[in-house]
Structure formats: structure tokens, C-alpha cells
């Protein structure tokens, strides 16, 4: 069973605890009031891989910077939450992501080396826009969330924890997949990329062959039409 540790971060009242409970129990409870960190544990199967999952939910407002950095060092992946009805929670996200990146960099994990290539370390992160059911109070558009996720190199999900457990599971599973890919040994990643490249090459080769065949057929048809027209012209001359 593969261990995966997830840290969920975001401003107060964005639905962090509700998301955790929804994912673990499938139940939704709207009001929570906890001022200490809580770790949720469960097992899931993702893409036929058994995962031993830990989700750490901390009260960012009550946590010191040192405590927050310690939690970031502990985690393999991150869920960053904001509420679409609270613009300030959206504006806090870049600072949280910056702290995540800086903390991981301090661990010497900013860069990984593969042969003669240098690859920038990717921190598995999914940006989650919560409370999508409260459209009438929306302060952050979907497009703004998508743009921020792209800028921060995150996955993106807009959902309502209150309405759909399937959407919550999809967001967590997306992050788990990013973490598992990050944990995959580098030779496996290279093998996977080679497989993808070979598959794309085969598809491209077939497409080029089809294009060449169509070109030959078109050329032959053009030549046939030209010959036919010349033959028709010669027949007309003979008839005269």
C-alpha cells in the first residue's frame, strides 16, 4: 500500500474541514469550529493502486509560520481551497503557494537531476474553488480560478462540497494521481514518456502515410482527368 500525505490549506470558512469529512464519510456537515489540527486517515484504490491516505487539516489562522512550514514539509501534496463567494480567500492563495514552494525548496527538493538533464521539481497541488452552489453570491469567476491555477502550476477544480461527493472525490483523486506520479521512480517515468512518444510517433506516421496516399490518389486522378480531356479533344478534332 502506497502512503500519500495531503495537506489542505486555505482561508477560514472556505470548507476545508467539510471537504475532509465529505471525502472520508460521504456526509456533509455545514458548520465546524475547531482550532487545532486534525489528521484524517483512510484507504482508497486509485487506478488499481492501493493508497494509505492521510489528510491533515490545520487552522491556518491559529498556526505559527514554523508550525505551518513543518506541516508543509510533512506533506506530499496540497489542496488549496478558496470560496467563490469570498474574494479575499482567493487572493490569499498565491501567498500560500509561495510558502509551499519556498519550504520545499529549502528541503533541497526544488530540482531533481536525471542524467544530463535538469528538471524543475513539481509540487503536486490542486486548487479547489468551493461553494459553487452559491452562484448568487459569486465574487470569483471560474475563469479567474483557471488562470490562477495555470500561473501557479496547479490542477483546478470548481465544486460544491455541500452538493456532490463525487466532485470532492475527483479533486482528491486528481491530487493523489499527481503525488503517485511524482513518487514514481525516474526510470519508470522515462519509460512511460518513451511509451507515450512511441505511440505518438506511430500515430503521426500513420497520419503522414494516409496524407501521402491521398496525395498520390489526387495526383493520379488529376492526371487521369487531364488525359481524358486530351483524348476528348483529339476525338473532336478527328470528327471534324
UniProtKB/TrEMBL annotation:
Its EC number is 3.6.5.2. GO terms for molecular function: G protein activity; GTP binding. SMART domains: RAB, RAS. It catalyses: GTP + H2O = GDP + phosphate + H(+). Keywords: GTP-binding, Hydrolase, Nucleotide-binding. It is an enzyme of class 3 (hydrolase). InterPro entries: P-loop_NTPase, Ras-related_GTPase, Small_GTPase. SUPFAM superfamilies: P-loop containing nucleoside triphosphate hydrolases. Belongs to the small GTPase superfamily. Ras family. This is small monomeric GTPase.
Amino acid at each position: 500500500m502506497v502512503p500519500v500525505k495531503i495537506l489542505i490549506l486555505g482561508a477560514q470558512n472556505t470548507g476545508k474541514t467539510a471537504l475532509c469529512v465529505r471525502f472520508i464519510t460521504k456526509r456533509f456537515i455545514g458548520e465546524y469550529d475547531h482550532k487545532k489540527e486534525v489528521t484524517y486517515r483512510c484507504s482508497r484504490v486509485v487506478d488499481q493502486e492501493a493508497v494509505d491516505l492521510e489528510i491533515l487539516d490545520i487552522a491556518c489562522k491559529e498556526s505559527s509560520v514554523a508550525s505551518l512550514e513543518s506541516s508543509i514539509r510533512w506533506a506530499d501534496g496540497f489542496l488549496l481551497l478558496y470560496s467563490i463567494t469570498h474574494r479575499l480567500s482567493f487572493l490569499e492563495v498565491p501567498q500560500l503557494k509561495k510558502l509551499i514552494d519556498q519550504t520545499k525548496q529549502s528541503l533541497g527538493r526544488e530540482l531533481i537531476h536525471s542524467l544530463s538533464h535538469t528538471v524543475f521539481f513539481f509540487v503536486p497541488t490542486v486548487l479547489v474553488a468551493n461553494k459553487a452552489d452559491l452562484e448568487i453570491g459569486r465574487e470569483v469567476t471560474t475563469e479567474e480560478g483557471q488562470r490562477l491555477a495555470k500561473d501557479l502550476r496547479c490542477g483546478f477544480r470548481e465544486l460544491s462540497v455541500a452538493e456532490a461527493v463525487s466532485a470532492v472525490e475527483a479533486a482528491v483523486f486528481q491530487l493523489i494521481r499527481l503525488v503517485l506520479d511524482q513518487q514514481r521512480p525516474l526510470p519508470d517515468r522515462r519509460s512511460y514518456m518513451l511509451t507515450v512518444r512511441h505511440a505518438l510517433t506511430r500515430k503521426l506516421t500513420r497520419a503522414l502515410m494516409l496524407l501521402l496516399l491521398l496525395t498520390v490518389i489526387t495526383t493520379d486522378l488529376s492526371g487521369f482527368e487531364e488525359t481524358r480531356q486530351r483524348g476528348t479533344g483529339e476525338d473532336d478534332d478527328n470528327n471534324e
